[in-house]
Design brief:
Number of strands: 12
Strand content: 35-45%
Largest sheet: 7 strands, mixed
Radius of gyration: 14 Å
């Protein structure tokens, strides 16, 4: 399965979010487009405050909403990584490359570093959790 696959955490239910002219696959990460009051596919500019949730159902461009599950602080997910994965990168924070992958490698301290690696899965995926709060004091 592409995208974010939750592997740890309790089932907290699902909530519909508004979309417009957007095809969504199960596992896609969505972020809020505050200006247009709808959810869009997450991009590398996503910050913790903008995360709308992980799609738990597919949607086609004609749909007006999609069901998502909002990641909680200790939920863990498996997701594709853009570079070779290594256990020595555990606890590094990464930005997204798109709604389905993280840009792993060097530890990212920007506000867009929203996913923290906790382990590796095979050679192309990381296990981790979403950063729910950022340390903006640095």
């Amino acid at each position: 399965m592409a995208g974010f696959n939750r592997v740890k955490g309790g089932d907290k239910g699902f909530e519909p979010v508004t979309i417009s002219s957007l095809a969504v696959a199960v596992g896609d990460l969505l972020m809020w487009d505050y200006e247009n009051e709808k959810a869009i596919l997450a991009t590398s500019s996503a910050t913790p405050e903008r995360i709308a949730g992980v799609a738990v159902a597919a949607a086609v461009s004609g749909d007006t909403s999609v069901l998502v599950q909002k990641p909680e602080e200790y939920d863990e997910y498996i997701v594709d990584a853009t570079n070779a994965v290594a256990a020595t990168d555990n606890y590094h924070r990464y930005a997204l490359t798109d709604e389905n992958a993280v840009a792993n490698g060097a530890d990212d301290t920007a506000d867009t570093a929203i996913f923290q690696q906790l382990g590796v899965v095979g050679t192309t995926q990381v296990r981790g959790r979403f950063v729910t709060r950022q340390d903006r004091a640095a």
